[in-house]
Each structure stands twice: as C-alpha cells, then as structure tokens.
Amino acid sequence: MRILRNYILLECVAPFLTALSALTCVFLLGYLVKLANLVINKGVSLLMVGKVFALYVPVLLTYTLPLACLIGVILTFSRMSADNEIMAIRASGVLLRRLLTPLIAAGIVLSLITFILNDRVIPYAYHEQRATLKNIGVSNPTALLEPGIFITAFEGQVLFIHKVEDNRLYNITIYQPQPDGKPTRTIIAREGEFTSVPGEDKVILKLLNGTSDEVDINDPGKFYKLNFNTLFITLDLSQNREKVDKKPREMSLKELTAEIDRLEALLVDVSRLKTEYHRKISWSLTPLIFILMAFPLAVITNKREKSANVLIAGLCAAAYYLLVLGSEALSIEKIAPAYLVMWTPPVIGLSVAAYLNYRMIKK
Questions:
Q1: pLDDT reported for residue 115
Q2: Contact 203, 233 (CB under 8 A)
Q3: Helix, strand, coil share of the chain (percent; to 5)
Q4: Residues 19 and 112 in one domain
Q5: How many whole angstroms separate alpha carbon 281 and alpha carbon 319?
Q6: Residue 53 and residue 329: Cα distance in Å, rounded?
Q7: Which of 151, 227, 228, 245 could form a disulfide with 159 if both were Cys (CB 3.0 to 4.6 A apart)?
Q8: How far apart are CA 265 and CA 58, in angstroms?
Q9: Vertex 226, ends 224 and 230: CA angle to 5°?
Q10: pLDDT for res 5
C-alpha cells in the first residue's frame, strides 16, 4: 500500500504543478499589461513595478491553488481510469476508498497552506501592494492619471482627463470644492502638463487655453467666467504620504477580531469585517473539498480526453465560486449571519463530495 500511495501522489504532482503554473500565468498576463503601461507610458521605475507584480502572485494563489488541485486530481485519475489502472488496482483487492487516504492527507496539507496564505501572506501582500502604488503616485504624479475617471488623489481637487499622452494632458476638467458650502469652482482646459516642485510633495499643473467658471455667491443664478491662455495650479500630494489604513482583506484574523471588538463597542456596523473573518477560514478548506470532488468525478467519467476533464473541473469550480460570492453578498447585506452563510459553501461542497465518493465506492 505504501508503494501505491507514493505512486498516486507522484502522479498527481506533475498535473498539479502544471495547472498551478498555467493558471497563475494566465491571470498575471492581464495584470502585467497594466503594469507595463506604468513603465512605458508613465515612466515608473522597473524596480517599483516589479515589487507590485511580485506582491500580486500570492494574492492569486488563494484562487489558483484550489483550482489546480481540482484539475490535477481529475487529470491524474482520468488517465489512470482510461489506462485500466483503476481496474487493476481493484482486481488486486485494494478498495477504492483506500486510495482516498493519501488524497485526504494532501488536501489537509494544502488547506493548511491556504489558511496561512489567507491569514498572513495575502493580507501583507494586499497592504504592501496598495502602499507601493500610493507611493508611486507621490514620486510620479502622472502614474495617478487615468483617462476617463474622476481622480481624487490631489487634496482639494477633483480631476477628469479625457486623454493622457506621456506628460501631456488633453481636455481637462477640474472641480475645486469651496469651504463653507460655497458653490464649486470649475476649470476647463484643452491641454495641460505637470511640473514637479523640487523638495516638496507638490506639482504644478500648467493649463492651456481654457476657462474658469465660478458661481456668484450673492446671486447663484449668475456666474463669473474667466478665459485664459495659461493658468498654473498647485496640486498638493502630501495626503498621499499619510499612513495607508488597512482594509478588511489586508488584516489578519487577529487584527480582524480586534477591529470587530473595537467597532462593536462603538455600535458601528461590522458585517464586512465578520464576512472577511469567516471567509478567510472557510475558504481554506477549498483545496480539500476540490480534491474530494475530483477523485470520484475522474473515476466515474472514465475518459481520457483532457479537454472534457478540464471542462468538468471548470464547471465545478465555477459553481463553487459563485456560491461563495453569493454567500458573501448575503453576509455583507446582513440578510443572514456571517458565521452561518459563509460556512454554507464548504458544507455543501463537502456534502456533494461525500455523496459522489459514496456512489463511487458502492459501484
């Protein structure tokens, strides 16, 4: 039995690692395009972008690792079933349920790894990535500029830019909220460009060919309109130097517990924090659930076509992920308690896996 156990585990390693590498690379490719834009068009240093890229890898592992378990086990046992190895094992007097023992052990180990990722590694990676991106905006303001969205990174200013090319901006709209409830000042310019202020967390925005509109305080039905050829505006980046507060996904279980206790004492809604707390723990069981589901599916299908097996794996994973997302929504909206609804997906997953294995063993 020891020889058979080692054989099964070794057979699963290659497809598992292949699936893990392929899935991680596919997800990284989409993110790589965005980071390449920062280097090529925004002039951000390659070292800084490389750090952001490296921090994104562990974040992906929490999703790709369970899916790689599902694909790896299905491919392994589908191949063994198609080659009649499963039949030979049963003919030798070995019960199929004994083949589950090494798979369960591997699933427990991978679930523990996923738990550590969720509790320690991924919160750190999330937080460091967000802090690094914020520092990129301080050292290189143009990296903060994305056309077609409202930009609030500059204190006291809201920018909307239609087009950005290198350091050149086109069709710019700036909203400047005024104190004491006064109407907002609006500045519109056809072109603009940034100039850094040495030694300060400020930049000078040079606007060309535009207008500045401001409502008359005494008569809101009237406004002043100023046409200009050149206008200089100082934008403050000092707020970006402030400490980056942690979001729920950037907290460990210990930090989430402390924050929940603190906010509950202040009668603050903590549904998101409780949802994240239970999500981190319940999601850690996903590798074990996917392995237990993959084994009977692979043996029952008895197909060698890899495309069909991967399709089965994809459908199973999609159904489970949708169930998790639905549970999160119910928990955040306080339709059901987090401790109940967030544990529904793993309970359902384990129940389905147990049923499939029972049916397989009975055949």
A1: 96
A2: no
A3: 65, 15, 20
A4: yes
A5: 19
A6: 29
A7: 151
A8: 34
A9: 155
A10: 80
How far apart, in whole angstroms, are the C-alpha atoms of residue 57 and residue 34? 15
Number of domains in the chain: 2
* Alpha carbons 110 and 29: distance in angstroms, whole number: 25
Looking at residue 89, its pLDDT comes to 82
Backbone angles phi, psi at 333, to 5 degrees: -80, 0
Both 83 and 201 in one domain: the answer is no
Q: Are 124 and 34 in contact (CB under 8 A)?
A: no
> Could you give the 3-state DSSP secondary structure of residue 174?
strand
Residue with tokens 């190895």: 85
Q: How many CB atoms lie within 10 A of CB 53?
A: 17
Output the six-digit token pair for 324.
């998790």
Contacts with 22 (C-beta within 8 Å, 6 or more apart), sequence order: none
- The whole-number pLDDT of residue 228 equals 87
Could you give the count of Cα atoms lying within 13 Å of 46 in the half-sphere of its Cβ? 1
Residue 49 φ then ψ, to 5°: -65, -40
Residue 94: its pLDDT value, please? 80
- Looking at residue 263, its pLDDT comes to 86
Reported as a single tens digit per residue, the pLDDT across 46-59 is 787 788 888 888 98
Sequence-distant (≥ 6) Cβ neighbours of residue 222 within 8 angstroms: 215, 216
**Same domain, yes or no, for 160 and 134?**
no
Domain encompassing residue 196? 154-236
The pTM score is: 0.73
Which residue ranges of the chain lie beneath pLDDT 70? 1, 37-44, 134-146, 149, 153, 166, 180-182, 196-201, 215-223, 237-245, 301-307, 309, 363
Angle at 331 between CA 248 and CA 345, to 5 degrees: 100
Distance CA 170, CA 183 (A): 25
What is the model's pLDDT at position 218?
66
Of the three residues 236, 263, 292, the one that is the final residue of a domain is 236
Q: How far is CA 146 from CA 48, 174, 184, 309, in A?
A: 19, 14, 23, 41
Q: Is 244 helix (H, G, I), strand (E, B) or coil?
A: coil
pLDDT at 247: 80
**Amino acid letter for position 355:** Y
Amino acid at 239: Q
